[in-house]
Design goal:
The structure is a single chain. With about 140 residues, this protein is mainly alpha-helical. The chain has helices at about 1-30, 30-55, 65-75, 75-85, 90-100, 105-115, 120-130. It starts with a helix and ends in a 5-residue tail after the last helix.
Length: about 140
Amino acid sequence: MLRPILLYGSGLAAAAFLLEWLNYRHVVHRWSTEFYIACIAVVFVALGIWVGNRLTARPRQMFVRNNAAISALGISAREFEVLEMLAAGHANKVIARQLDISPNTVKTHVARVYEKLAVASRTQAIQKARMLDILP
């Protein structure tokens, strides 16, 4: 009694599978171009979202100046002002005018900042100061 039920059930399952397979082949054959274009579009949308999330700048948390690093490096208040103005992109003459000091004094402060940060250029000084959380 069990054997005919199993054979009948297996036959029904095979027939259902065959019908679904034929329907799938018909759909894929008929709509193959649209299907592949839709799949490619979905992949590119997902890729675009992923790349967009990776390349979009994250909002920084509120900047907290690392005063311990400033004092450990021995950077004076005036040297720090000069460093901030360097980071703003000002030339030595502009810094001298705004701080009401001579351009030679600005050069001296810049040289001292370079020594204390162990760098050789303005770009390196600004980069290292940002890395140490001295500048925002």
